[in-house]
Amino acid sequence: MASLLVSLLATPAFAACSVRTTTAVDLGTYSPAAVRQTVVPYRPASSGFGCSAAILSLLSSDYARATVSAATPLKLTSTTDATRSVTYTLAADSAGANPISPGTAFVFKGPSVNLLGLLGDASDVKVYVRPTSTDPVPPGIYKGDFKITWAWQFCSLLGVNLLGAEICLVNDTSASASNTTATISITLTLTANPVQMVIATTTVWDPQSNTANPRATPGSRQRTTVTVSNPDIATLDANSLRIVLPTPAKGVVALDGDKTPANAVVTTSDGTPASNLALTYTASNSSSDDVEFSNNVNFDLVTEPWTYQPAPGNAAAQAAITAIRFRPRGTMAAGSSFSVSMPYSVSLLGP
């Protein structure tokens, strides 16, 4: 009798469960690439189901069962173009390990309930949403909704397990609920998150001081570095990055190097994390490396053929270069940066 009393006291009373009106869910702002690559994290959304007190213990017969309506596709539609949409998936946990499929009942029961976050916080049970479209989608605002019908049974008063037999004085079930269906509205904003670029120029050599505190005087050498950063959680498409560097005023491309001990021409460096990019430079008149030149004063980023091949060591050919295009190879990693630099000779009158 004493052990029975302890068991009764150890199992708290459980108040009624219900399905309530939900508030709209904003999944946040991401790039179209992040959605296409399925790297947007699962976001919590109120399922509409909750109980007025935390579930601290369960009998094996207790459950909460969620069925997402299959009548409406899981997609968000553009607010400006009804032909554009983003699909999404649902899960019972933030890692997506327990997917919820439309038309198929998902049962929160027994030990799984605790793993999925129902135990200890039953006031507002969550489902998790992630946009997963693999087709390209344009920037914009996308909206949609889905319905969940709930069925449940919980022991609401003095649930005990006595010698393997479960005893419950009062059950709370969905059969007595006035409403068992919730509608969850979702908004997703897609906006471009383009590569960022920073250009910096440093004097590395002059005829008087060499490399010791060099100054930007006629005939000195400067190195211009372009650093590109990918701020997105998505990678760039493979081999899609193009870096165009116009020749600066009063500068001439120095194909013979920067006059430092290394006397390098094109140099590259990686940030942290690694960019996974690589760039090769063989010679200014090579058609097989990743560095191209233009001698067109009015070059166009789209139509420029980039076929100019200045002869190494030819001063006139170097002075005719108006822009350089770098084509790094690889898939630029999310959150990474990559730098490429080129030496220039400071001229008196400019090119």
Automatic annotation (TrEMBL):
Record keyword Signal present: yes
Cleavable signal peptide: 1-15
Keywords assigned: Signal
Name of the protein in question: Protein CsuE
Organism of origin: Sphingomonas ginsenosidivorax
